[in-house]
Design brief:
two-stranded antiparallel ribbon, single chain, 8 helices, elongated, mainly alpha
Length: 247
């Protein structure tokens, strides 16, 4: 069964040196909105905790709001860490055209026991998330230097950033009560994070090649036409008879 929180990222080799150089300044408006968004999401998570412990269900409206915050946090983190170059949306609505995407599958029932002890169960996840956050920061610094020099993000460095970014995003989904099981380090989406297609080769032309131009020089005269056929000679007649001798 697929994990109920998926993370996808499209790889783009070329990155803007200008926006990369000023990335921390460009993130400031996003960080301000995300901070306000986070205050509301924290209130929603607390209300959802009580709702799940009492009813065993995550209210749909609260789930969509918290999932939107999780999605916005993942996209802004990816932008700040140079996983992608386009400026992300401020809000957490799904955007299939953006190169970093998160999708969520709401569970029909949630465990009251797992939700009640979530703070204790989340301790290993918090530790791993901290380690992955350090990996993401180190990878982002390396990517910043490489992009400023070459204007390109190496594929190997992109894979490291996606690994760290995806784990932190899905661990947040666990902390926000959106999922009930520990997040995997990788899955099919992160292992197959967008790879640019191979360059297309030119198709051979279906038209036959043009004939070669004639060689230069005087034209060669055509041979004369053959004359009328020579008739066959008439067939030879019988040999002449000798006259009878005289008396």
């Amino acid at each position: 069964m697929a994990y109920p929180a998926t993370f996808e990222a499209d790889y783009a080799e070329r990155h803007s040196r200008l926006t990369t150089f000023f990335r921390l300044i460009l993130v400031i408006p996003l960080a301000i909105v995300l901070w306000l968004y986070g205050i509301l999401a924290t209130i929603a998570i607390v209300i959802a905790w009580f709702a799940i412990v009492i009813t065993g269900r995550y209210p749909q409206a609260l789930y969509e709001f918290v999932a939107g915050f999780n999605r916005a946090l993942a996209r802004i983190t990816a932008y700040a860490a140079l996983v992608c170059d386009p400026y992300p949306p401020f809000w957490g609505t799904p955007d299939p055209s953006y190169p970093v995407r998160m999708e969520f599958a709401r569970l029909p029932r949630y465990s009251r026991l797992k939700t009640f002890f979530r703070v204790i169960l989340a301790i290993p996840i918090v530790i791993l998330r901290y380690v992955m956050g350090l990996l993401l920061e180190i990878g982002a610094i390396a990517a910043w230097v490489v992009i400023l020099i070459t204007g390109k993000l190496p594929r190997g460095l992109f894979d490291v950033l996606v690994l760290a970014n995806s784990y932190t995003a899905r661990s947040d989904a666990y902390l926000y009560l959106l999922t009930e099981t520990y997040p995997p380090f990788q899955d099919q989406q992160t292992r197959a994070a967008g790879t640019p297609g191979p360059p297309t080769s030119e198709r051979p032309s279906a038209e036959p090649p043009a004939p070669a131009p004639p060689a230069s020089g005087p034209p060669i005269p055509e041979p004369p036409a053959a004359g009328p056929p020579i008739p066959d000679p008439p067939p030879a007649g019988p040999p002449p008879t000798e006259p009878p001798p005289g008396p």
